[in-house]
Design brief:
Chain A is of the alpha/beta class and 276 residues long. Chain A has ten helices and eight strands. The first copy, chain A, has an eight-stranded mixed β-sheet with strand order 3-2-1-4-5-6-7-8, sandwiched between helices. The longest helix of chain A is centred in the C-terminal third of the chain and has 25 residues.
Chain lengths: 276, 276
Amino acid sequence: MKLFNKVVIIGTGLIGGSLGLALKEKHLVSRITGLSRHRRNAGLAKKAGAIDYAAVSLEVVKDADLIILATPVEAIIEIALKIAKKIKRDCVVIDVGSTKEAIVSRLSRVIPNFIGCHPLSGSERRGVVNLESGIFKNSLCIITPTAKTNKKILSKVSLLWRRLGSRVVILSPEVHDRILAFTSHLPHAVAFSLIGCIPAKLLSLSSAGLRDSTRISASDANLWGEVFLSNRKNLLSCLSAFQTKLAVLKLAIERKNKKLLINILAAAKKKREKLG
Amino acid sequence: MKLFNKVVIIGTGLIGGSLGLALKEKHLVSRITGLSRHRRNAGLAKKAGAIDYAAVSLEVVKDADLIILATPVEAIIEIALKIAKKIKRDCVVIDVGSTKEAIVSRLSRVIPNFIGCHPLSGSERRGVVNLESGIFKNSLCIITPTAKTNKKILSKVSLLWRRLGSRVVILSPEVHDRILAFTSHLPHAVAFSLIGCIPAKLLSLSSAGLRDSTRISASDANLWGEVFLSNRKNLLSCLSAFQTKLAVLKLAIERKNKKLLINILAAAKKKREKLG
């Protein structure tokens, strides 16, 4: 069953392009037009089979039934404001940005059928060369409606993600941002700082542990700079909580307090094991 | 070619047991006797084919040609002191502990042919159920001789690790500990603190990024408590360096200094990409 007829994906990078592939693979939409800031990328996405048409102008949104905003956070708002007056009245617009409060509060005012989405399928790899339709399968997608969101459209958008194999969780944009600050933005901030403090000449002697724990620091700097700033307050309080935890661990080592130290490590281990 | 005749492995957990398996698979030794604090573990290691005999008393070290100390750090010194007077004069003794200065400085005084080794093949998984002969292949093994180490024995021990597929790097115990504080002990301390500060009820909404960056916090608490304390000074200065990096990142976010923020993230990304 087709869920939407004409789809426009704006931003044909890893998430946007992979979404195109997945929607086509599952036959959920009739045709997909892709747009990219860099014209070459939309062409590559077409070659990869992620979109049917590569467009060069935002005018293509005019007859779209579903628009997917898949650019970095700041550009999502910028582009949405540009297209708000061009789209059909019943056009559904979703985004896939990593923070939701700023985007949803701004866009729900200008686009009646806007629904914020956050598929947790990102990766430190980016761009059209890494497209993969399977990244949404068994993955989490958080949808962040407001009190005003049309329930029928919310159901339809939820169904779309579930059809791609995602587990859908509904949260308010504010709760989403508070939670993601802990579960995603803080780990990224920590990973960037961890690799940042390791002398470059020692990298050849690193272990699998260092590689794993800093993998996400190979993520795009501009994209994550925008995420950090758009979820600034929540992230700052998570960073403070982390600094306190680290300071206590450091103190236990400083004072050779083996009992406290092992208690801290054992509690952490126990919590990590729940993560699977 | 057999490198050693009679081998005794003390501590038949993940590293000790896997070493047994690998040595037998490559036919590098004639027979292996295993000892474990928990008698049951040595029995399981025998069943798994990692050792030929499961012993219950340290007396078995008497006719050993090679003894491998594969217990946690503190027990390595304790056991080595116990066996020092029982072993043959030409018996080679190696350990596989994660810190080297304390162990090597103490043991090289009582065991003439002691050579500190550190195969970077550990894992957050432990114990006899996870034995795997392949964990040394394409992995790094750091060997930490002293000025007094017999060169022929050093060559033989290096050859043993290379035969198991490891890349051998020779460092002094002091340099080893300074480097590993950065490349292994700091990432562990950070991972334990990161998972420690995340509210337990949010774990179900975590992403692959959080899972990767905290994987090593599922490591054994006692083992890592000992590692942290036995490399205390080096680790404390690494923790300070990390705290500074994190504070600068936090300040950039606090002050909405996007340029500085993106510079920090881009430098980190560039360094991480060198790690492969």
